[in-house]
Design brief:
The chain has six helices and ten strands. With 232 residues, it is α/β, with parallel strands linked by helices. Helix 4 crosses helix 5 (149-161). The model has no long low-confidence stretch (mean pLDDT 91).
Length: 232
Protein backbone atom coordinates (compact mmCIF):
# COMPACT_ATOMS: atom_id res chain seq x y z
CA UNK A 1 0.00 0.00 0.00
CA UNK A 2 1.09 3.59 -0.54
CA UNK A 3 0.70 6.59 1.71
CA UNK A 4 -2.51 8.63 1.34
CA UNK A 5 -2.58 10.84 4.44
CA UNK A 6 0.02 11.85 7.02
CA UNK A 7 -0.42 14.05 10.09
CA UNK A 8 2.66 15.41 11.84
CA UNK A 9 2.35 17.22 15.19
CA UNK A 10 -1.05 18.69 14.35
CA UNK A 11 -2.70 20.89 16.98
CA UNK A 12 -6.15 22.41 17.09
CA UNK A 13 -7.41 25.07 19.52
CA UNK A 14 -10.84 26.57 20.05
CA UNK A 15 -10.79 30.13 21.31
CA UNK A 16 -13.02 30.49 24.40
CA UNK A 17 -12.48 34.22 24.95
CA UNK A 18 -9.78 36.85 24.47
CA UNK A 19 -7.36 35.20 26.88
CA UNK A 20 -8.33 31.51 26.93
CA UNK A 21 -8.24 28.69 24.39
CA UNK A 22 -9.21 25.02 24.55
CA UNK A 23 -6.56 22.64 23.22
CA UNK A 24 -8.80 20.06 21.51
CA UNK A 25 -6.25 18.11 19.43
CA UNK A 26 -2.74 17.69 20.81
CA UNK A 27 0.30 16.82 18.66
CA UNK A 28 -1.56 14.35 16.44
CA UNK A 29 0.70 11.98 14.52
CA UNK A 30 -0.41 9.09 12.33
CA UNK A 31 -0.37 7.77 8.79
CA UNK A 32 -3.15 6.36 6.59
CA UNK A 33 -2.28 4.08 3.71
CA UNK A 34 -4.41 3.69 0.59
CA UNK A 35 -6.87 0.86 1.23
CA UNK A 36 -6.95 1.28 5.02
CA UNK A 37 -10.17 1.00 7.00
CA UNK A 38 -9.45 3.36 9.88
CA UNK A 39 -11.87 3.75 12.78
CA UNK A 40 -11.51 6.71 15.14
CA UNK A 41 -13.03 6.07 18.56
CA UNK A 42 -13.40 8.03 21.77
CA UNK A 43 -15.89 9.36 24.27
CA UNK A 44 -18.19 12.28 23.50
CA UNK A 45 -16.16 15.50 23.51
CA UNK A 46 -12.84 13.69 23.08
CA UNK A 47 -12.10 15.37 19.73
CA UNK A 48 -12.85 12.50 17.34
CA UNK A 49 -15.30 14.40 15.12
CA UNK A 50 -13.00 17.43 15.16
CA UNK A 51 -10.22 15.17 13.89
CA UNK A 52 -12.46 13.75 11.16
CA UNK A 53 -13.48 17.25 10.06
CA UNK A 54 -9.82 18.27 9.97
CA UNK A 55 -8.93 15.25 7.83
CA UNK A 56 -11.82 16.07 5.50
CA UNK A 57 -10.67 19.71 5.31
CA UNK A 58 -14.02 20.82 6.72
CA UNK A 59 -12.14 22.43 9.62
CA UNK A 60 -8.73 24.05 9.97
CA UNK A 61 -5.85 23.37 12.36
CA UNK A 62 -3.44 25.74 14.08
CA UNK A 63 -0.02 24.17 13.60
CA UNK A 64 1.61 21.03 12.33
CA UNK A 65 1.63 19.35 8.94
CA UNK A 66 -1.14 17.59 7.01
CA UNK A 67 -0.07 15.79 3.83
CA UNK A 68 -2.42 14.28 1.24
CA UNK A 69 -0.61 12.27 -1.43
CA UNK A 70 2.55 14.00 -0.21
CA UNK A 71 1.12 17.52 -0.65
CA UNK A 72 0.84 19.84 2.35
CA UNK A 73 -2.72 21.20 2.48
CA UNK A 74 -1.77 24.15 4.67
CA UNK A 75 -0.66 26.06 1.58
CA UNK A 76 -3.99 25.66 -0.23
CA UNK A 77 -6.56 28.46 -0.48
CA UNK A 78 -10.25 27.72 0.04
CA UNK A 79 -10.97 27.24 -3.68
CA UNK A 80 -8.12 24.73 -3.93
CA UNK A 81 -9.27 22.96 -0.76
CA UNK A 82 -12.83 22.69 -2.08
CA UNK A 83 -11.56 21.36 -5.39
CA UNK A 84 -9.42 18.72 -3.63
CA UNK A 85 -12.33 17.70 -1.39
CA UNK A 86 -14.61 17.21 -4.38
CA UNK A 87 -11.94 15.38 -6.35
CA UNK A 88 -10.74 12.76 -3.85
CA UNK A 89 -13.16 12.78 -0.86
CA UNK A 90 -16.67 11.50 -0.21
CA UNK A 91 -18.65 12.14 2.99
CA UNK A 92 -21.29 10.13 4.89
CA UNK A 93 -22.96 11.62 7.96
CA UNK A 94 -25.08 10.27 10.80
CA UNK A 95 -28.10 12.35 9.77
CA UNK A 96 -27.74 11.55 6.04
CA UNK A 97 -27.94 15.24 4.94
CA UNK A 98 -30.16 14.52 1.96
CA UNK A 99 -32.00 17.53 0.54
CA UNK A 100 -35.71 17.01 1.13
CA UNK A 101 -36.82 19.02 -1.91
CA UNK A 102 -34.76 16.92 -4.35
CA UNK A 103 -35.45 13.42 -5.60
CA UNK A 104 -33.13 10.58 -4.65
CA UNK A 105 -31.51 10.73 -8.10
CA UNK A 106 -30.97 14.47 -7.82
CA UNK A 107 -29.39 14.08 -4.37
CA UNK A 108 -26.92 11.51 -5.68
CA UNK A 109 -26.13 13.70 -8.70
CA UNK A 110 -25.17 16.76 -6.61
CA UNK A 111 -21.39 16.13 -6.36
CA UNK A 112 -21.21 15.89 -10.16
CA UNK A 113 -22.96 19.26 -10.46
CA UNK A 114 -20.52 20.80 -7.96
CA UNK A 115 -17.64 19.31 -9.92
CA UNK A 116 -18.90 20.74 -13.21
CA UNK A 117 -18.06 19.70 -16.73
CA UNK A 118 -19.82 16.33 -16.59
CA UNK A 119 -22.32 15.94 -19.48
CA UNK A 120 -25.94 15.29 -18.55
CA UNK A 121 -26.01 11.79 -20.08
CA UNK A 122 -22.86 10.79 -18.20
CA UNK A 123 -24.33 12.15 -14.95
CA UNK A 124 -27.48 10.11 -15.52
CA UNK A 125 -25.47 6.95 -16.19
CA UNK A 126 -23.38 7.45 -13.05
CA UNK A 127 -26.46 8.08 -10.90
CA UNK A 128 -27.98 4.84 -12.18
CA UNK A 129 -24.72 2.96 -11.61
CA UNK A 130 -24.31 3.97 -7.97
CA UNK A 131 -27.98 3.65 -7.10
CA UNK A 132 -27.75 0.14 -8.53
CA UNK A 133 -24.63 -0.45 -6.42
CA UNK A 134 -26.57 0.26 -3.21
CA UNK A 135 -29.63 -1.63 -4.46
CA UNK A 136 -31.96 1.36 -4.77
CA UNK A 137 -32.10 2.19 -8.46
CA UNK A 138 -35.89 1.69 -8.30
CA UNK A 139 -36.10 4.59 -5.81
CA UNK A 140 -34.49 7.12 -8.14
CA UNK A 141 -37.58 9.33 -8.51
CA UNK A 142 -38.74 9.06 -4.90
CA UNK A 143 -38.27 11.78 -2.29
CA UNK A 144 -36.06 11.24 0.79
CA UNK A 145 -39.09 11.33 3.11
CA UNK A 146 -40.44 8.22 1.37
CA UNK A 147 -37.42 6.11 2.36
CA UNK A 148 -36.46 4.42 5.61
CA UNK A 149 -33.41 5.57 7.57
CA UNK A 150 -31.35 2.66 6.26
CA UNK A 151 -32.34 3.40 2.68
CA UNK A 152 -31.45 7.08 3.14
CA UNK A 153 -28.02 6.12 4.43
CA UNK A 154 -27.48 3.86 1.42
CA UNK A 155 -28.40 6.83 -0.79
CA UNK A 156 -25.82 8.90 1.12
CA UNK A 157 -23.23 6.20 0.34
CA UNK A 158 -24.14 6.35 -3.37
CA UNK A 159 -23.75 10.14 -3.27
CA UNK A 160 -20.37 9.82 -1.54
CA UNK A 161 -19.18 7.33 -4.16
CA UNK A 162 -20.32 9.02 -7.37
CA UNK A 163 -17.10 11.02 -7.88
CA UNK A 164 -15.08 7.82 -7.35
CA UNK A 165 -13.22 9.34 -4.39
CA UNK A 166 -9.93 8.03 -3.04
CA UNK A 167 -11.22 8.20 0.54
CA UNK A 168 -14.63 8.09 2.20
CA UNK A 169 -15.17 9.89 5.51
CA UNK A 170 -18.01 8.52 7.63
CA UNK A 171 -19.15 10.29 10.82
CA UNK A 172 -21.20 7.88 12.98
CA UNK A 173 -22.83 6.39 9.84
CA UNK A 174 -24.83 3.85 11.88
CA UNK A 175 -25.67 6.15 14.79
CA UNK A 176 -29.23 6.92 13.67
CA UNK A 177 -30.02 3.34 12.62
CA UNK A 178 -31.22 0.20 14.39
CA UNK A 179 -28.57 -2.48 14.94
CA UNK A 180 -29.62 -4.73 12.04
CA UNK A 181 -29.65 -1.86 9.53
CA UNK A 182 -26.37 -0.61 10.98
CA UNK A 183 -24.74 -3.96 10.21
CA UNK A 184 -26.01 -3.73 6.62
CA UNK A 185 -24.38 -0.31 6.25
CA UNK A 186 -21.12 -1.55 7.76
CA UNK A 187 -21.06 -4.55 5.43
CA UNK A 188 -21.55 -2.17 2.52
CA UNK A 189 -18.61 -0.03 3.68
CA UNK A 190 -16.51 -3.16 4.19
CA UNK A 191 -17.31 -4.27 0.63
CA UNK A 192 -16.13 -0.88 -0.68
CA UNK A 193 -12.97 -1.24 1.40
CA UNK A 194 -12.41 -4.74 -0.01
CA UNK A 195 -12.50 -3.03 -3.42
CA UNK A 196 -9.56 -0.84 -2.25
CA UNK A 197 -11.50 2.24 -1.14
CA UNK A 198 -9.97 3.94 1.88
CA UNK A 199 -12.49 4.38 4.70
CA UNK A 200 -12.03 6.75 7.66
CA UNK A 201 -14.86 6.44 10.15
CA UNK A 202 -15.77 7.91 13.53
CA UNK A 203 -17.87 5.81 15.88
CA UNK A 204 -18.48 5.32 19.59
CA UNK A 205 -19.66 1.72 19.01
CA UNK A 206 -16.93 -0.70 20.09
CA UNK A 207 -18.60 -3.58 18.25
CA UNK A 208 -17.69 -1.94 14.93
CA UNK A 209 -13.96 -2.12 15.63
CA UNK A 210 -13.84 -5.54 13.95
CA UNK A 211 -14.30 -3.89 10.54
CA UNK A 212 -11.10 -1.85 10.83
CA UNK A 213 -7.50 -2.69 10.09
CA UNK A 214 -6.43 0.40 12.07
CA UNK A 215 -7.98 1.96 15.16
CA UNK A 216 -7.19 5.38 16.60
CA UNK A 217 -8.40 6.16 20.12
CA UNK A 218 -8.83 9.82 21.00
CA UNK A 219 -8.70 10.68 24.70
CA UNK A 220 -8.49 14.28 25.92
CA UNK A 221 -7.31 15.36 22.48
CA UNK A 222 -4.48 12.82 22.29
CA UNK A 223 -4.53 10.16 19.56
CA UNK A 224 -3.17 6.66 20.14
CA UNK A 225 -3.16 3.77 17.68
CA UNK A 226 -4.22 0.44 19.21
CA UNK A 227 -3.87 -3.12 17.98
CA UNK A 228 -5.98 -6.28 18.03
CA UNK A 229 -9.19 -4.32 18.65
CA UNK A 230 -8.54 -4.26 22.42
CA UNK A 231 -10.20 -1.05 23.56
CA UNK A 232 -10.28 -0.08 27.21
Amino acid sequence: MSRLIELNNVNKYYKLNKSESLHVLKNINFKIEKGDFLIIMGKSGSGKTTLLNLLGMLDSFDDGEYLINGKNVIGLNEVERSSLRNEIMGFIFQQFHLIDSLTIGQNVELPLLYKGGVPKKERENLVNKYLDLVGLKNKKNRMPSELSGGQQQRIAIARAMINNPAVIFADEPTGALDSETGIEIMEMLKKLNDEKKTIIMVTHDRDLAKYANKIIIIKDGVASEVNDYVID
